[in-house]
């Protein structure tokens, strides 16, 4: 980070990079590569910005990919369901109020004070499934 770059400008650069790759998760090293032309040179700077953006609820960390995506639904009640395609790497955020209620009920039964939850599911995206089905039909 150059002296002229504020935290908020690094945060904005990361959000822009993640928005440009909608449907894809980007790791910290990938973000650093994208931000180098703007003068961001340190991985710690990227990690600090990612922590701030996560804390603000603007991005999700996709644990299975060790990468980040822009949060698609900021107003949904309950935890987001992050669907990761194992074939093409596409990432889609899904919502379901029912899942939120279920997670809250499980936590309450365990007397666990739930603060945050992200549910990740892995499989094949619609496009990969359609491509596979088309391939099998021929
Ligand atoms: Zn796919």
- Structure summary, number of beta strands: 5
The global form is: flat
Structural class: alpha+beta
**Order of SSEs, N→C?**
HHHEEEEHEH
CATH 2nd-level architecture of the largest domain: Orthogonal Bundle
Q: How are the strands of the biggest sheet laid out side by side?
A: 4-3-5
Radius of gyration equals 17 Å
Overall pLDDT level: 88
- What bound compounds does this protein have? zinc ion
Largest sheet: 3 strands, mixed
CATH topology-level fold name of the largest domain: Arc Repressor Mutant, subunit A
What do you see in this structure?
The chain is α+β, with helices and mostly antiparallel strands and 138 residues long. The chain has helices at residues 7-20, 28-35, 43-55, 97-109, 126-137, and strands at residues 59-62, 67-70, 81-85, 91-94, 119-123. α1 (7-20) packs across α3 and α2 (28-35) crosses α3 (43-55). It has a 3-stranded mixed β-sheet, with no helix packed on it. Strands 1-2 form a two-stranded antiparallel ribbon. It folds into 2 domains: 1-71, Winged helix-like DNA-binding domain superfamily/Winged helix DNA-binding domain (Arc Repressor Mutant, subunit A, Orthogonal Bundle), CATH 1.10.10; 73-138, Dna Ligase, domain 1, CATH 3.30.1490. A hairpin with a 5-residue loop joins β3 (81-85) and β4 (91-94). The chain has 5 helices and 5 strands. Zinc ion binds at residues 85, 87-88, 90, 124-125, 127-128.
What is the fold's blueprint, element by element?
Layout: H1 7-20, H2 28-35, H3 43-55, E1 59-62, E2 67-70, E3 81-85, E4 91-94, H4 97-109, E5 119-123, H5 126-137
Parallel strand pairs: 3-5
Antiparallel strand pairs: 1-2, 3-4
Helix pairs in contact: 1-3, 2-3
Bound molecules: zinc ion.
Zinc ion is lined by residues 85, 87-88, 90, 124-125, 127-128.
């Amino acid at each position: 980070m150059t002296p002229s770059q504020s935290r908020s400008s690094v945060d904005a650069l990361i959000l822009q990079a993640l928005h440009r790759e909608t449907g894809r998760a980007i790791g910290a090293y990938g973000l650093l590569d994208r931000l180098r032309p703007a003068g961001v040179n340190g991985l710690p700077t990227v990690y600090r910005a990612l922590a701030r953006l996560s804390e603000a609820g603007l991005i999700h960390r996709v644990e299975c990919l060790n990468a980040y995506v822009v949060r698609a639904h900021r107003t949904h009640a309950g935890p987001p369901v992050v669907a990761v395609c194992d074939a093409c790497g596409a990432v889609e955020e899904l919502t379901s109020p029912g899942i939120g209620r279920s997670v809250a009920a499980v936590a309450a039964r365990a007397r666990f004070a739930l603060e945050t939850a992200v549910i990740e599911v892995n499989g094949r995206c619609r496009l990969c499934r359609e491509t596979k089905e088309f391939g099998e039909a021929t």
